[in-house]
Amino acid sequence: MRYQPLSSSFYKNARNKFGKLLAQKSLAIFNSNDIYPIGADSTMPFQQHRDIFYLCGVDQEESILLLFPDAVEAKHREILFLRETNDHIAVWEGAKLSKKQAVQLTGIETIYWLSEFNRVFQELSTQCERFYFNTNEHYRQAVETQTREDRFIKWCKKQYPAHGVAKSNPILQQLRSVKDEEEIAQIQQACDITEKGFRRVLSFIKPKVWEYEIEAELIHEFIRNRSRGFAYTPIIAAGNNANVLHYTENNQQCKAGDLVLMDVAAEYGNYASDLTRTVPVSGRFNDRQKAVYQSVLHVKKEATKLLIPGTIWKEYHIEVGKIMTAELLKLGLLDKADIQNESTENPAYKKYFMHGTSHQMGLDTHDYGLLHLPMEANMVFTVEPGIYIPDEGFGVRLEDDVVIQKTGTPINLMESIPIEIEEIETLMNN
Predict the structure, then answer these.
(1) Which of 271, 397, 401, 425 is catalytic?
(2) How many other C-beta atoms are found inside a 10 Å radius of the C-beta of residue 278?
């Protein structure tokens, strides 16, 4: 791995917290992700399932984690199964984790090779009453691919039809939503790498530069700072492309006088950052661009103040909508008639600000969190308002990542990344 892993004590603590929330005589199973094919003998780069990573830190395919707090033997209360290295694998792929290395990384004392899984699992099945399966219940999930986890669940239900079943995901939604200090440090590292990339492109962007050339500058800076690359598919949208919210073609040329919206960020150690900045291709904002930009920045600053313990996510977005409405009236994009004709389901501001303001982030860019529960200290949220004006050929979005505090306003993990108009113009013209 190119990143510095978290301490084994972090993973031990995560497993302990999870185990305390299991029903008695329950066995929880977590599988690594598959390596997904592209075609012929080509595959996509492996990315670990974030849940097993959160619980043990293993960043390797074909791994299985069992958590069984009520196991008869203490050695069976935490078990990790790994793919065994042989001479062929060592030569062609590189050696996999040894048992000693796995113990050091995870803090799990009982390590078996994957070939022993069926035997051990059969033994443990006689001691438990239910299995906790790890299904994907994220509020944004829309996955149609059958995963390794899906195949295991199907096999397990067929082999052990008399066992009860329960869900791990609600527990993980709760645990993963509140970040440990070590996790926040990893996210901060991702943010710092993102800053390096953003500062690099400020001196690179100019008329006639292509969107993909900006992407290339960013990925260069990210990788040279020990990131795997982008935390999500990068959006580099010049001119009217910014009004396509998930524009990812990145194949157009930047024109003089345009703005370029960049929703781009690095990952570090599987932890994401999430940044958006909008800058002038020619190095200077015109008066109208400045006015819209300042409105977006004002909304972002005011929205950030609302991210405090006890805030309900849905109510927060209603309040942000009120702030945005006032700015759109000021800009002349809305009038009193628009406000009079709006409804709760279709507020007037949605014409120019269609998406949400904040989402949780961490191991996933859109991270776990039970959004109906009040916000807590050490949750990490984005703040990302935007105004999109197709008729004027540009859009502005600004985004930072913040950590909710016990009292007061959140800490901005991207505080040092330029965002004020004067600083951006100065850096682009030096």
Answers:
(1) 397
(2) 27
Q: What's the total number of domains in the chain?
A: 2
Q: Which residues of 35-73 are buried (b: 16+ CB within 10 A; e: fewer)?
A: eeeeeeeeeeeebbbbbbbbbbbbbbbbbbbbbbbbbee
Q: CA Rg, the chain, in Å?
A: 24
182 HSE (CA, 13 A, CB side): 14
Answer yes or no: are the C-beta atoms of 412 and 192 closer than 8 Å: no
Q: How many angstroms separate the CA atoms of 181 and 350, rounded?
A: 36
Catalytic residue among 59, 399, 400, 425: 399
Domain assignment present for 395: yes
Q: Are residues 208 and 304 in the same domain?
A: yes
Instruction: Respond yes or no: is residue 384 known to be catalytic.
Output: yes
**Are 201 and 138 members of one domain?**
no
pLDDT of 427 strictly over 90: yes
Looking at the domain assignment, is residue 3 inside a domain?
no
Domain that holds residue 283: 181-428
Decide if 2 is inside a domain: no
Q: Are residues 48 and 189 in the same domain?
A: no
213 tagged catalytic: no
**Are residues 218 and 199 both part of a single domain?**
yes
Active-site residue flag, 399: yes
Same domain (yes/no): 282, 347: yes
One of 140, 246, 372, 422 is an active-site residue; which one?
Answer: 246
Give the pLDDT confidence of 216-249 residue by residue, as tens digits: 999 999 999 999 999 999 999 999 999 999 999 9
Region label for 18, one of left (φ > 0), alpha (ψ between -120 and 50) or beta (otherwise): alpha
